[in-house]
Design brief:
The chain is about 35% helix and about 20% strand. The strands form 2 sheets. It has a 6-stranded mixed beta sheet. A 6-stranded mixed beta sheet has the order 4-5-6-10-7-8, with helices on one face. Helix 3 crosses helix 4. It is α/β, with parallel strands linked by helices. The chain has one domain: Metallo-dependent phosphatases (Purple Acid Phosphatase, chain A, domain 2, 4-Layer Sandwich). The chain is globular and about 50 Å long. This is Calcineurin-like phosphoesterase family protein. It comes from Sphaerotilus hippei. One of its GO terms (cellular component) is cytoplasm. Belongs to the metallophosphoesterase superfamily. YfcE family. GO terms for molecular function: phosphatase activity.
């Protein structure tokens, strides 16, 4: 089965559409959507409804911290621009959208794969995986051989040997990486809707569980149109400007 991994869409319709189209062209059999469907962007209603449709068709979806913040107005851990976006988003969403976001689980499993937004040791705590130490902690918290997480807006891949040796590297887009099950793996596909690695192209990844390969992808999209929508909505200018540079 080919499983497309998309995370941190952040109400960016254009990026999400681009990633979904590419996933289809690459033969994805199923989707795993790793949270933060809303926040920052100007199309939260459209994105939530699209995610609802995809889940109805069999997609896996988990809750992100921005999704939870919009539902619960839990913004104490967010910076000012993010808090303003959360309030704007909550006002823009219908009760059904909020109910759907509030119903999403913090984690999901499929076979030997684990899907979370933040990490495996405390998915509801929203701590980041920013180094090998957090990656090891996450992998040690589960028996699953492959863990897929979002939250970090830069692509990364970690693996843990049976002897406890950790390694990591930055994947090259379009190059399939062998991810055999005799090791544990932790993959961060990068952000679809708000990349922060200096490249404005949207991120997604494809896991082939029969071949045990993982391929990271970048997809250019019309980020100028997305930025214009953010500005027109009255959201903070910085949320639009960062899309141009991918920062």
């Amino acid at each position: 089965m080919k499983l497309a991994l998309i995370t941190d869409i952040h109400a960016n319709r254009e990026a999400f559409e681009a990633c979904l189209e590419q996933a289809h062209l690459h033969g994805a059999d199923r989707l795993a959507l790793l949270g933060d469907f809303v926040g920052y962007g100007a199309d939260p209603g459209w994105v939530v409804e699209r995610v609802q449709d995809l889940v109805a068709q069999g997609a896996i979806a988990v809750r992100g911290n921005h999704d939870e913040a919009v539902v619960k107005m839990a913004t104490s851990n967010l910076v000012e621009d993010a808090r303003r976006a959360v309030q704007w988003t909550r006002d823009a969403l219908a009760p059904g959208h909020l109910a759907f976001l509030g119903s999403l689980p913090y984690r999901n499993e499929l076979g030997s794969s684990l899907f979370v937004h933040a990490n495996a040791w405390a998915p509801e705590g929203w701590e980041y995986i920013l180094s090998r130490s957090e990656a090891v902690r996450s992998m040690m918290a589960t028996d699953c051989r492959h863990t897929f997480a979002g939250h970090v807006h830069q692509p990364a891949l970690y693996h843990l040997s049976s002897t406890g040796k950790i390694a990591d590297f930055t994947p090259v887009p379009g190059v399939a990486v062998p991810v055999p099950a005799h090791r544990q793996w932790l993959a961060l596909p990068g952000s679809c809707g708000q990349p922060r690695d200096g490249n404005p192209a949207a991120c997604w990844a494809m896991f082939d569980d029969s071949r045990h390969t993982l391929t990271f992808h970048r997809v250019p999209y019309h980020h100028e149109a997305t930025a214009a929508k953010i500005m027109a909505a009255g959201l903070p200018r910085q949320l639009a400007e960062r899309l141009h540079e991918g920062t």
